[in-house]
């Protein structure tokens, strides 16, 4: 059901639930001070529009939570790695949580300080390790014993000692979608709680490493405080054991994962309220003075963005009505991948053309040739072809997971800052998409044939 936003008449001047900087003014949906219809007319659709104020507001909740503490917020850039978005966080003094050499290059290009970058992920290559060591990143979050050995080896060849944290798996259930739950036994992430001390001792014995911290991340879109509180207890037990064994830890990295309200049933704790509880735990156990690191992604950008899309066709059927829009699973992959809910709202009070059409229940779908290409099921909408809709909570894990499936170009992105707008990504053209590809020329095809003509077997079409 599209029961979101409840009780909101588009004509009223009100912000949308969960989206403090997106709301209707004079019947028209705005991001900060700018009308989305006007932006869509100028830049076309599908179009991602982000509010800078919303990102800074979300960041401020964490900053309030950490007031008076030694803490570093490392934005998990996989949530949205567009340069213009990274720049907002770099300018606000954030560090970055990266998971690839590509993300390292992006973060640095956006103005990140290398010393505030931490490198997570289960499959870092030697080349990525070299690249990150050469850049002088702050910490590698190592996820296996084998990775410790390789990292030490790589660091020694560069005459360096790599700063490391080991990601521990606290085995708590974050109560989220299985694909985005990471801290349970049986997930590929981190090392088992029971093996921690042994593996820290191993790390301490490696000449190319310098132990700096401990790390954990239990999952994503977590909407309750309890899994975090449980994980903190388990991590602090490990901190005590590691330090008792003579290995000092400079920081505790508690990962990311805090959810956002995609719909009214999602009621995640506010970042500052959550951290008040977690810090009370740290204080009670005597670790309140330790440096803290966190890696939030979604909670910093998710509700800062919307995706504006045009209704292409309305197709009424006996069993179902379809509202076919110009955004698709390649732009907004979360419904197809995780059966995720994104609210869908009209851009104008009733949409001039739509005013005359009755409200009906629709499946909102994209043009991609798959039944999995849906953006919303069973949504009550008053729509006609040509109307514009906004898909909400589209700031995180949408553009960063967008693809070119069906040879669709990726959408344009705008960053709104008060009454100003910046085009931070141009719409991708088909020429952009084909740039790295080559046709096979007849001569090259001949030259590439490995078997001499005389011995060649007849070509089988099997
Ligand atoms: N740190 C680590 C090690 C992570 O693996 C992640 C996310 C984060 C931090 C940031 O988590 P966040 O604060 O954004 O929840 N594509 C999925 C989400 C995948 C999350 C992967 N890891 C989705 O669209 O829901």
SSE map:
Blueprint: E1 14-16, E2 19-25, E3 28-31, E4 34-35, H1 36-43, E5 47-51, H2 52-65, E6 71-76, H3 83-91, E7 95-98, H4 101-109, E8 117-119, H5 126-135, E9 139-142, H6 145-157, E10 162-169, E11 191-192, H7 196-205, E12 209-215, H8 226-244, E13 251-253, H9 271-284, E14 291-294, H10 298-301, E15 305-315, E16 322-325, H11 334-338, E17 344-346, E18 360-365, E19 374-381, E20 388-391, E21 412-417, E22 420-425, H12 430-434, H13 442-447
Parallel strand pairs: 5-21, 6-7, 6-14, 7-8, 8-9, 9-10, 10-11, 10-12, 12-13, 13-14, 16-18
Antiparallel strand pairs: 1-2, 2-3, 3-4, 5-15, 15-16, 15-20, 17-20, 18-19, 21-22
Helix pairs in contact: 2-9, 5-6, 8-9
Ligand LLP binds next to α10 and α11.
Fold and architecture overview:
This protein is an alpha/beta fold and 462 residues long. The chain folds into two domains: 10-51 and 302-425, Lyase, Ornithine Decarboxylase, Chain A, domain 1 (Beta Barrel), CATH 2.40.37; 121-294, Alanine racemase (TIM Barrel, Alpha-Beta Barrel). The chain has 13 helices and 22 strands. The chain has helices at residues 36-43, 52-65, 83-91, 101-109, 126-135, 145-157, 196-205, 226-244, 271-284, 298-301, 334-338, 430-434, 442-447; strands at 14-16, 19-25, 28-31, 34-35, 47-51, 71-76, 95-98, 117-119, 139-142, 162-169, 191-192, 209-215, 251-253, 291-294, 305-315, 322-325, 344-346, 360-365, 374-381, 388-391, 412-417, 420-425. The strands form three sheets. Strands 5, 15, 16, 17, 18, 19, 20, 21 and 22 form a nine-stranded mixed β-sheet that branches. Helix 9 links the parallel strand 13 (251-253) and strand 14 (291-294). Helix 2 (52-65) runs parallel beside helix 9, helix 5 (126-135) crosses helix 6 and helix 8 runs parallel beside helix 9. Mean pLDDT is 91; it is low at 1-13. The structure holds ligand LLP.
